[in-house]
Design a protein that fits this description.
Shape: globular
Strand content: 35-45%
Strand order of the largest sheet: 2-1-4-3-5
Largest sheet: 5 strands, antiparallel
Structural class: mainly beta
Length: 78
């Protein structure tokens, strides 16, 4: 049996400390766990924290199209 490759472009983001994890396409932005990002969601632009880093998710485990990360935020953006 061939092992499925991990997708380097998918990250898991939480909007609340103990909320659900939502998956997004990193869209070429270099991200790691703990980064604060701005994403486009059904409710408009929202700020969240990366809790599952790139290379930790199998695309085959997810369903449907994914929204993209809009930008990585730094200390000046808060």
């Amino acid at each position: 049996m061939r092992e499925q490759p991990l997708d380097e472009a998918i990250v898991g983001v939480r909007f609340r400390p103990y909320g659900y994890v939502h998956y997004f396409d990193a869209a070429g932005i270099v991200l790691s766990v703990g980064d604060t990002v701005m994403v486009e969601s059904d409710c408009g632009a929202r700020q969240g924290m990366v809790v599952i880093g790139p290379g930790q998710v199998l695309r085959s485990d997810l369903r449907g199209p994914m929204e993209r990360i809009l930008c990585k935020m730094d200390g000046k953006d808060y």
